[in-house]
UniProtKB/TrEMBL annotation:
SUPFAM superfamilies referenced in this protein's UniProt entry, alphabetically: MFS general substrate transporter
Protein name stated in the entry: MFS transporter
Domain of life: Bacteria
Compartments where found: Endomembrane system
BP GO terms, sorted: phosphate ion transmembrane transport
Transmembrane portions of the chain: 21-43, 63-81, 93-116, 128-146, 180-198, 235-258, 299-317, 337-357, 369-390, 396-420, 432-454, 460-482
Keywords on record: Membrane, Transmembrane, Transmembrane helix
Gene Ontology terms, MF aspect: glucose 6-phosphate:phosphate antiporter activity
Keyword Kinase: no
Membrane topology: Multi-pass membrane protein
InterPro entries: MFS, MFS_dom, MFS_trans_sf, OPA_Antiporter, Sugar_P_transporter
Main location: membrane
């Protein structure tokens, strides 16, 4: 390494440990990426299974909306709670245990119809349906609570390994994990829905019941789609059982390979991130640090509020994309799954691009990048709104516009968590992200209610009109912090930790 390179290398001070530190840095990034992708495998499978559940049991958008709303709120609070848990227990333990419990809840969800039959003694009728909805709600809520054990460990672990000047770029690479997981989940589950299950297409009573369920839910071309669903009757169950098996293996992988901090493998701390709070002997120092860096930090709260609007837009497409594309655009479930996966794939490209732009164009100020992204999301939602209004059902056009929206919305989705790690510093990153999780998944829950009710009452075009407004509000919130600094380390070290006030 030349002297000029040493001057710009933030890891140069590590000396002989530099190479080993960077090796462990990338190992940590890759291991947590695989683990977090598997969390999405046992989370986003629901969006592909929903059309099949509607076909077989007539579950309405409103019922799914309430289940998504409740589960999202639980997930947000779980992220907040686990932001504190990872400070007391190893992030490795919390993350691997969470993935294990998600697998268990998915096994139970897949068996939900069977459990309803066992409890009610019947396989159809109001009692069966109500019990099935209750079982779905309970298992989704449990799964979402366990899902909240996935991100907080990553939010705490990664800032211990990545320097603030590189956090946007490298964590944008990491942030692709959930896009990869969600994309693979919808593709794999789409294939499951089109290949597994029992062929009941030669049973008139089954086809008739499915047709009635689809018709009652205003599904386009119900008679034709009924034959397709009947040919793979019960396939939706495997959308939960297959990902659950993968999650079990992933839990073992995480516990075996992950390490929380450099000191656990005999390495020095991350250069340039030393905090006075860790050296203070005042027992109230940590409480003062948390109050200043999290609870009264204007920039933390602005990012958290913006996160609510980002998640409403993102989850409206991700959770409801397959259902909209099958019911309103006339696509079969496999094509709808691939189209939704395209949204996630574009999100991966967007995440990487916006992370690089943040560090190299906006000098690490991710809030500037987020403003541009939200404007872009609003523009592409407006284009999609026009297409739905004019009944443009061309698959290529739909895919391109959705992918452009994904490219934009995944910028702030990734950067808000990264920027919270910078603004609150590595010691309070998990807690700041916990607050963002509550508001983000309040937004996710609201997206379930908004889409469910608006789609049933006013149609899908109105849903996308609503998303335009939401994206613009989020952009205005982010503009309010345009003059914020890159990170909060200077602020953290300016606190007088040894005073008694």
């Amino acid at each position: 390494m030349s002297k000029e390179e040493e001057k710009t290398d933030v890891y140069a001070s590590l000396g002989k440990d530099r190479k080993r530190f960077l090796s462990w840095q990338w190992k940590t990034i890759i291991v947590t990426m695989i683990g977090y992708a598997l969390f999405y495998f046992v989370r986003k499978n629901m969006s592909v299974a929903m059309p099949g559940i509607t076909a077989e049991y007539g579950i309405t958008n409103k019922s799914f909306g309430w289940i998504i709303f409740a589960g999202s709120l639980v997930y947000g609070f779980s992220r907040f709670i686990n932001g504190y848990t990872v400070d007391k227990y190893k992030g490795r333990l919390v993350m691997s245990l969470g993935l294990l419990l998600c697998a268990v809840s998915n096994f139970f969800f897949g068996a939900g119809a069977n459990l309803s039959t066992m409890i009610t003694g019947t396989y159809n009728g109001p009692d069966f349906i109500n019990m099935f909805i209750l079982i779905m709600g309970v298992t989704i809520i449990l799964n979402q609570f366990f899902q909240g054990m996935g991100y907080p460990p990553c939010a705490r672990i990664l800032p211990h390994w990545i320097h603030p000047s590189q956090l946007a770029t490298k964590m944008s690479v990491w942030n692709c994990s959930h896009s990869v997981g969600a994309a693979l989940a919808v593709v794999v589950c789409g294939a499951i829905m089109g290949s597994l299950g029992t062929d009941m297409s030669n049973h008139p009573e089954v086809v008739k019941a499915i047709t009635a369920n689809l018709t009652n839910n205003d599904v386009a071309d119900a008679a034709t789609k009924a034959l397709s669903y009947a040919a793979h009757y019960g396939a939706w169950k495997w959308c939960f059982w297959v990902p659950a098996c993968l999650a079990l293996a992933g839990a073992v992988f995480l516990f075996t390979c992950l390490r929380d901090e450099p000191k656990e493998v005999g390495l020095p701390d991350l250069p340039g991130t030393k905090l006075k709070v860790t050296e203070s002997k005042n027992p109230k120092a940590k409480a003062k640090f948390e109050k200043v860096m999290v609870w009264t930090n204007r920039w933390v709260w602005t990012f958290c509020i913006a996160n609510l609007f980002v998640y409403i837009v993102r989850m409206s497409i991700l959770d409801w994309g397959p259902k909209f594309l099958t019911e309103a655009s006339g696509l079969d479930i496999a094509k709808a799954a691939w189209t939704t996966a395209g949204f996630e794939i574009a999100g991966i490209i967007g995440t990487l691009s916006w992370g690089y732009i943040t560090d190299h164009v906006f000098k690490g100020k991710g809030h500037h990048t987020c403003v541009v992204c939200m404007l872009g999301a609003a523009i592409f939602m407006a284009i999609f709104f026009a297409m739905v209004t004019m009944h443009v059902n061309n698959l290529l056009y739909i895919s391109i516009v959705l992918m452009c929206a994904g490219f934009c919305i995944y910028g702030p989705q990734a950067l808000i968590g990264i920027e919270l790690g910078n603004q609150a510093t590595k010691e309070a990153s998990a807690r700041a992200n916990g607050i963002a999780g509550i508001l983000g998944y309040l937004g996710s829950g609201l997206s379930g209610l908004i889409v469910g009710y608006v789609a049933d009452a006013y149609g899908w075009a109105a849903v996308f009109g609503t998303m335009i407004v939401v994206a613009l509000i989020g952009m205005l919130v982010l503009i309010s912090m345009w003059k914020a600094p890159r990170d909060g380390y200077a602020r953290a070290n300016s606190i007088d930790y040894d005073s008694e006030d």
